[in-house]
Specification:
Layout lengths: L1 H12 L9 H11 L7 E8 L11 E5 L10 E4 L5 H7 L3 E3 L1 H8 L7 E4 L4 H5 L2 H4 L17 H9 L2 E5 L5 E8 L4 H17 L10 E8 L5 E3 L2 H4 L1
Parallel strand pairs: 3-4, 3-5
Antiparallel strand pairs: 1-7, 1-8, 2-6, 8-9
Length: 231
């Protein structure tokens, strides 16, 4: 831990982290201060001027990142037998129904996304207390409850992510890997930000995008000039 602390001080000393940067500059600063030995995720935090406790100010959406997330996304397709081959052909790692529902009841949740079909949702409803807190509950709004299972699996594999504002009014999501080119990270970040801007609730008053921060796994946050993302 001492070595990491010393290394962190060294990399942070190279940059003024109290400064506000344009989006493209912030990406390079985060790269410069990332010292992990593994390929860290590039994350974005967007604080919104909304009250998420009010239904008409909830911000939730989906976006397909132009360059994907860089992560291997493990998909469970909870489908009827007639849809199993479609799910497997599209690349779902786990395909089935009752056996997997029982495994989830027993505590297994070793997947990143669950995709299912409308007719199966009554069975999955009972899993809400397990899947909900882990962000795994399928939802028609995010395209994870659909009859077009193959297409849904392919979209998730190609970089489709969903996000929603938390109780503090913040959207936090991974948008890339630090190893991505600056241009790829910039394009992914812009896609997320533009989607969030389009989703502004009519009930939200005042400043909508209050702050934007970029960070990587274990790096401090770098503040982004909101004018560089809203103009």
């Amino acid at each position: 831990m001492v070595k990491i602390s010393k290394k962190r001080k060294e990399v942070e000393a190279k940059h003024d982290l109290s400064q506000v940067y344009a989006l493209s500059e912030a990406i390079q600063v985060v790269k410069n201060i990332t010292y992990t030995k593994f390929d860290a995720s590039m994350d974005i935090d967007v604080r919104l001027g909304v009250d998420p406790r009010k239904a008409n100010q909830m911000v939730r959406g989906v976006v397909t990142l132009p360059h994907g997330t860089g992560k291997t996304v493990r998909i469970l397709a909870l489908v009827t037998p007639d849809k199993e081959e479609e799910a497997k052909a599209a690349g779902a790692e786990h395909v089935g129904l009752d056996d997997y529902i029982q495994q989830i009841k027993n505590g297994w949740t070793d997947v990143d996304v669950i995709i299912t079909m409308p007719s199966v949702m009554p069975k999955i409803g009972a899993l809400g207390k397990i899947l909900g807190p882990r962000g795994l509950m399928p939802n028609p709004k995010t395209g994870t409850v659909t009859m077009d299972i193959g297409k849904a699996v392919q979209e998730v594999k190609s970089g489709k992510i969903d996000f929603k504002v938390d109780k503090y009014g913040i959207i936090h999501t991974s948008i890339a890997k630090v190893s991505f080119s600056n241009e790829a990270i910039l394009e992914n970040a812009k896609e997320v930000l533009q989607t969030i801007i389009k989703l502004k609730p009519t009930a939200a008053k005042g400043t909508y995008i209050k702050s934007v921060y970029l960070s990587s796994t274990m790096s401090p946050g770098v503040q982004v000039d909101t004018k560089s993302v809203t103009s």
